[in-house]
C-alpha cells in the first residue's frame, strides 16, 4: 500500500512540475536607458510626458535617459512680473517617469498613475545591461 501511495505521489509531483515548466514565463519590465538620442526621440518623450501630466511640453536635457532610467518632472510655477509665484506657494509634487523595456519594447511609465506609453522612435536597453555595476 505504501509503494502504491508513494508512486501516485511521485507521479502527481512529476505532472505538476512538467505543467508548471510548460507555462509561459511572464515578461517583466526592466528599468532601461536610451541607446542613443535625437531631437525626434526627445520630442516623443516630451509628448508622452505632456499626455500624462498636461500643460505645455516639458524641457528635457539632451542626455535625458542616457545614464539613468528615471527622471523627475516638476510642474511649472506660474509667476507674476516680479518673479513671485501666483496664488501663493507652489505645492504640486514632482512626477516620476521611468524608462523601461519589456520584450524589446521601449516604454515610458508615469509612476503616479501607472500609465504606460509605448515609444516608437526611442531605442533602449536594460539599464543593468548597459551599466552592470548599478
Account of the protein in words:
The chain has 134 residues and is of the alpha+beta class. The chain has one domain. Helices cover 30% and strands 22% of the residues. The chain is built from 3 helices and 6 strands, in the order H-E-H-E-E-E-E-E-H. Strands 1, 2, 3, 4, 5 and 6 form a 6-stranded antiparallel sheet that branches. Strand 3 and strand 4 (105-110) form a beta hairpin. The chain is elongated and about 50 Å long. The model is unreliable at 15-23 (pLDDT under 50). Residues 1-27 form the signal peptide. Keywords: Signal.
Topology summary:
Elements: H1 2-22, E1 30-34, H2 39-53, E2 70-73, E3 95-102, E4 105-110, E5 116-118, E6 124-126, H3 127-130
Antiparallel strand pairs: 1-3, 1-6, 2-3, 3-4, 4-5
Rg: 24 Å
Q: Please state the overall shape, judged from the principal axes of the Cα atoms.
A: elongated
**Euclidean distance between termini CA atoms:** 56 Å
* Total DSSP helices: 3
Largest sheet: 6 strands, antiparallel
Q: Hey, roughly how much beta strand do the residues contain?
A: 15-25%
Tell me how many strands there are: 6
Order of helices and strands: HEHEEEEEH
Number of domains: 1
Work out the oligomeric state of the chains in this entry: single chain
What percentage of residues falls in helices of 4 or more residues? 25-40%
Low-pLDDT stretches are: 15-23
The mean pLDDT is 82
Structural class: alpha+beta
